[in-house]
Structures are given as structure tokens and as C-alpha cells.
Amino acid sequence: MSDQATAREEAGDEPLITALRAGLPAAAVLTDPDVTASYAGDMAGFCPSGTPAAVVLPQTVEQVRHVMRTATELRVPVVPQGARTGLSGAANADDGAIVLSFVKMDRIVEIDPVNRIAVVEPGVVNAALSRAVAAEGLFYPPDPSSWETCTIGGNIGTGSGGLCCVKYGVTAEYVLGLDVVLPDGRLLTTGRRTAKGVAGYDLTRLFVGSEGSLGAVVGATLALKPAPGQQLALAAEFPSAAAACDAICRIMADGHVPSLLELMDRTTVRAVNTLTKMGLPESTEALLLAAYDTPDPAADLAALGALCTAAGATEVVPAADAAESELLLAARRAALPALEAVSGTTMIDDVCVPRSRLGAFLDGVAGIAATYDLTIGTCVHAGDGNTHPNVCFDPADADESARARKSFDAIMALGLELGGTITGEHGVGLLKKEWLAKELGPVGLELQREIKGVFDPLGIMNPGKLF
Amino acid sequence: MSDQATAREEAGDEPLITALRAGLPAAAVLTDPDVTASYAGDMAGFCPSGTPAAVVLPQTVEQVRHVMRTATELRVPVVPQGARTGLSGAANADDGAIVLSFVKMDRIVEIDPVNRIAVVEPGVVNAALSRAVAAEGLFYPPDPSSWETCTIGGNIGTGSGGLCCVKYGVTAEYVLGLDVVLPDGRLLTTGRRTAKGVAGYDLTRLFVGSEGSLGAVVGATLALKPAPGQQLALAAEFPSAAAACDAICRIMADGHVPSLLELMDRTTVRAVNTLTKMGLPESTEALLLAAYDTPDPAADLAALGALCTAAGATEVVPAADAAESELLLAARRAALPALEAVSGTTMIDDVCVPRSRLGAFLDGVAGIAATYDLTIGTCVHAGDGNTHPNVCFDPADADESARARKSFDAIMALGLELGGTITGEHGVGLLKKEWLAKELGPVGLELQREIKGVFDPLGIMNPGKLF
Predict the structure, then answer these.
(1) DSSP state at residue B151
(2) What's the pTM value of the predicted model, to 2 decimals?
(3) In this complex, do A255 and B182 lie within 8 Å of one another by their Cβ atoms?
């Protein structure tokens, strides 16, 4: 426990706890240190987390307003949380903070097939929403790897992506309107329930990706798509990462719109085989997975496969049916746990570069792995240029951990040098604060800080995140 | 000329003009009152415009920065302008203002098929960009009615839509990054060149639809799509607006994704026939136009047509080929001039409602037309619920003009009552300021004003627009 937290405990958090309990059921205010410790942080590495004074689990908007008014009155930081599956430390608690967990606000309020919208509370799990709308012939596309556990509120806070983005876009594109409790307890409604709308500045979009730093999202109106066709996949094996990146460029320049286009490097393929015994081609230097969900996916995949062959693919294997397609996608979904198993843990990065620079990026990562004597396995949402280099290291090995940390900075610098961004879909949180300042530059950074000040003049909303 | 403008002319604008000319070519600073008067306003009715002190036509970012620094130093309002095709008065000049016209910054800097982006200056005409990217097998979807003359900068300022939005979305969805000159002359770069990115608050989206009230957009990185297939259209004739709206609900609930879905009411159809002699069915109470640009548009249209029949369509006529399709779309494109010809001019409204409320909205508009004894012809981007009631009136008839103005307010109130927004794609400008306040409510309005203050603390950027 940090000195600050110890001091606070000695002084006692009673006024805060008493005030919180005045507007919340007793069971909704957790203060047992063993319990609150389990809410201390998300899944990011290299990010400190403190000891919260309390974890609150509101079930109504009024209860959230009470929490925020209390926080403002007592000048206590508030850290909004979903399922803590984030990868940037954006949900990590500060010492003495109120952790505002939305896991008990998990109702799907409405699903409307004519208007193609869903209205939800922030604690709804992504998979629960996806399945509920699928039952109505609809589709909520954003599918981060953690979709079985992560919440829509967390997805909105982070601006999450997933495998579907190459065709269907990211979370931001599906958020039409929000209900937000501001730090002082005021209720703000942004956006609309309609398909279009340009009434005033787009505050909805300002909240998406704001990592709980402006206010607490307590409700969302989401856009839905009609259910897509059955997805059919293809795997293409390449003798070099450069050839695979050439194929990606040909595919995108040729007007293809696959529903998935993923690249796994040699290290990742081998790690997946070791963990899962899937028998992916060990000889490959890069494995490209593509899928189509169009009326004739086999024909579309055949055209895409021909471009892979032209770019030098040594083998192109279309799945025969949905079951085979699922097997190929399972290999991709196994990539992160497989790489974690290599050395004990991984630090997952999230640099997005222009597609045309993917080859240069992968070359650069190979150089960084050599420089720091590390195993780095890279998966790429190739259609988007969104790379996830996974730096494998043993956290018990101090020297290897230090080299892993250095490689992280080198990867981020490489991404910016190639015209990319430091984060495609994981967010900034604590992990990339210094790098956000570099990406935005001084004018952008100053304006972003001032915008935070408009919503949160006391600086109590998730302080220390983003900048 | 207003008293204020007269006073300014008497006092002389010499210090301003001299300062502007210090950083701009002589030909880029227009002060002849006959010339500057032609830049006074956009195409909105019922919106006052003043007499600008000067119109500047910069050709470089540095020249724009000079204009903005000068405006800040002398505390002179700046009104950014594209082609002045807007319909809300957002580009109308204030007395004594600098009109900052971007029509001479019209270069297409880059078209990149692999990364599917274009980099443009703000004065590029929408049609020029659309044609240039089409030549590379790409597609820039946003297609406002004024696409042959309107500029991309104006589209960004307004958040423009068009006929394609039901499938391809609005301008906002195609703006990846912006270069902006702030009122004090600082240069801000927002967003990215990559397909994804969540680094910090989304300032790009904040500028889209901000109507020049935060800064001057001097460059944009736009997302492109692959060229779609050839569009094939269908017309369906209905015996009532209610039946047509029922068909729209069935089409959307059934998972259709047409590339166009437009509704013209009886008044509009008759006006088009009168103007163009097109011979549309005079007996119709509502005409629905739909199109598909998929691999098999005839099959998709057949399924859509069957839903129209089930909803009571008296006739469903699929176009045989691209030429027939173009004829049907030409009818829709002729709607606005046709309605203008009815009484001399029209006031076009732009209310967007949930699709499921379109029937109630059209009933309400019919009631308003009866109440105020006016002809109102309504076209609807039906797939989006984005309605354009065109109130026909003779501007020389003071009483009719006054009734037209009242009907406008009644239409807006109706839209909000049905869960809609006061503007789907035309923006707020001067025309809908009071209504924006009603739609946003006091908390939203206060925050929007404060956000403006972050970017424009002196309030010189397009003052009096939006709020």
C-alpha cells in the first residue's frame, strides 16, 4: 500500500463512505480492502494502480448522480470501470479514489429493428448485446478480443475495435447518443436516436475514447446493422512478411472489402501451434487470414486468393465451410494467450500505420526484437494497418522486463515515424501518456486539456489518464 | 446597408484592409462593395446577412494564418465560406466581417488507393473530388444535392449528407483528419491518416458540423471506399403516404441495405411533372424510389419490391437498365427546383425523425400545411428518416411569407416531438439557433458554448451562428 493510501486509512475515509452510503444501498458500497483491491486495475502491464477508498456498484442513474455529487463535494477522484479488460491502465484506481463500477447497470433497454438501434446501460457485456440483437436479425459489429466479458461502457470509453473493423468500423461509428453524468452530478444527453443529425458540436463522439475523463456514461443509443451472411474464411501462407504485406496492398487497392483480414507472423503461428496443437504451417513466415460474408463468399475469396498467389503466397487454402472457417479464426483468437505462454507474459502494443507501411513496420519490429534480444510476436488487423506487437518477457526477470519496456517505446516511435498513431483501438490510459503528447503536439495537447476542463473543472474524473 | 456598416464605412476600414494586404496578394483582398455584396450570404431563406468589410481569397495556409492573426489583433469577425450553397445561413456575413473564402484553395493533394484516402484543400468542389477518385476506382460517397458546386470544406463545416447516406453514411464518417488554423493563427492538426485511431479526444469530429465557429479548416484527409457496382433503381407508387411509410419500415426491418431510398410526396411528384414533363404517375399519393448497387441489384430490388407490394403499392416499376435508373433519380434531383417553381420560392426544412415515425411526421406536415394554408411538398431520404418539407410561398406576398415562417417553426416542433432532430444534414447556422437551444437543453447548450470558448476565446469565428 502506498504512503498516501496508508495516511488516508489512518485519517479514515468515514466522511466519504458515510456520504456515499447516504444515496446508495449498503451492498453497493464496497470498502473491504481485500475486495476493493480486486478492482484496482485493468489488464495493462507496466501501469501502477493504487488502493481505492471505495468501490461503488450503482444500479440507477440517480445513484450515479449521487456518487458524482459526493465526489465533487469532497474533491475525491472517480475512476469509472467496466470489466477491467482494458490494456492501457485507463481503469486503474488512484489511491483514495472512488471506483465507479458499472457492472450492475447491465440492462438492454430496447432493441428496435425498424430504426436499427439498441438502447443499453453501460455495464451490458458486449457478447450479451451481440447475441440479443442477433436474435432479432441484427448485428452489433464491434468485437474486441475480450468480447465475451468486456462491457459496452468500457468499449465506449476506450473506442474499441476488433476483427470486424476492416468492413464494419469501430465502436465510435455505432454510438448515436449518450446519457452522461457530469462530475458535478448534472445529466447531459448527447446525440440522437435518428440515423442522421448535425445539431451542434458532436459531443457524443467527444465522449467515445475519452476513457472516463470527462464524465460517466450511464446510457447509450447504439446503431445496429442487419445480420451479415455466413462468413467464409481463407488462409494464405507466405514465404516472407514482405510478400504478405504486398498481398494486403494488392487486396485493398483492388477494391476488396473482406469482413476480416488478419496477419499472424511466424512467431505467433508457432506459439499458437505450441499452445493449441492446431497444426498451422510451421514453415510459414507470415499467415494471412481473410474472410467474406457476402452472398457469394467463395467467389470473392477466390479473387482475393488469386491476389495472394500473385504476391507470392506458397499456399492458399480456402475453408470448405463455416466449421473450417471457425477453426481458422480460432487460431487467430488464440494468438494472445499463445504468445503469453511463450515467456510468462506479454506486453501488447497497438500501433496503427497506413496499410502501405505495414511491411516497413514489420521490418522495424524485427529490428527492435533483435536490438533488445526479445521475442516479439505480431498480429495485425491487416485491413486496417492496426498492429499488435506482443513483446514476450518473464516478469520475474528484471533485465528482460527492462528491455521489454524499452522495446515498447521503440515500437511506438517506429509507428509515429511511419505516419501512424500510437493507438488504434486500446487507448492511452496510463501506458501511453507521454506518447500521446508526442502524437498530438503542443497545440493539440493544450486544447485537449482545456476541453477536459470544460467538463471536469475540478479534475476529479479519472485524473492522470490520457495526459 | 445597416447603420453599423455605414458607420464602419465612414470611419474607414483602412487599418484592416492595410493589415490584410500586408500578407496577401492584392488580388486576394476584395473590397469593392458590389463585389463583396455577392459574398454576403448562402442560399438560406429568412436569414439576415450584413456587409463584409472585405472578402479574402487565400491560396496558402500561411495566408490563412495571416488573415486569422489580423482578425485577432483587430478583433474583427471572420466568416469562413465555401461555395455558399448552404441552407442555414451559416456562411452569411456580418457587417464589417472578413469573409474568408476558400474557393481558391482547391487542390486535390493526394489520392492513395492502397490506404483509400484523399488529401484535399477545403475549396475542392465535391464533384471534382468524386470524379477524380472515381478515375482511380475509388468512391467518395457524400453527395449533397449541390454536389456539382459545393466544396468539401463547406461539406465538412455543415456535416453534409445526400442521397447515398442510407448505405454509405454522411460526411463526418469520411473525415479522418484535419488541418485547422485557429483564430489566433496557430495551426492545429487533428486525427490521422490511418484507418483506425483513438489517440485522445476526437477533435476531428468536433470540427465536422461546427460551421466555421471554432477555426478555419485548411486541409482534410478523407476516407474513400472502393467504387460500388452500377446502381439499378425501382419506383413504387402508393395510394397513401401511410402505405409508403409502412413499406419503408418493412424494408428496413427486413435487413435491406439499398444504396438509395427516397420518398416523394404527391405535391412533389406533381411539381416535378409540371417542371420537367417527366410523366411520373399523377395519381400517386407517394412515390418511393429505391436503388441497389450490389452484384445482383435486380434480385435485391425484386425482394424490396415485393415488400412494397405487400405494403399496398399499386405499382412497382423496376428500371430495366442504368439509363432508366438515371431517369428515376433525375426526377428526385429535380424535386427542389420543381417545388421552387410552384410559388416563387421555397423554404426547405431538414428534420430527421426515427424511420418508424415517418408516417406520423408526414401526417403532421399535412396538418401544418392545412393550418397555414400553404403548399408543402416533402421529399424524404426515407432510409434515414431525414425529411425535407419544402414550404412553397411567394416572397412578395407578406402574409404568405409570414405563414411560411410560422409553418417552419411548427415543423421543427413536430420533429422534436417525434423524437427527431432539427437538422439531419443542413446545419443550424442562423436559421435554427433558437431550435438548437431547445434540442440541446440548457446543460448541452452551456457545454457547447464553453467548448467554443476553448478554441475561440475572443468570439471572432463566425459569431452568432449555432448559438
Answers:
(1) B
(2) 0.96
(3) no
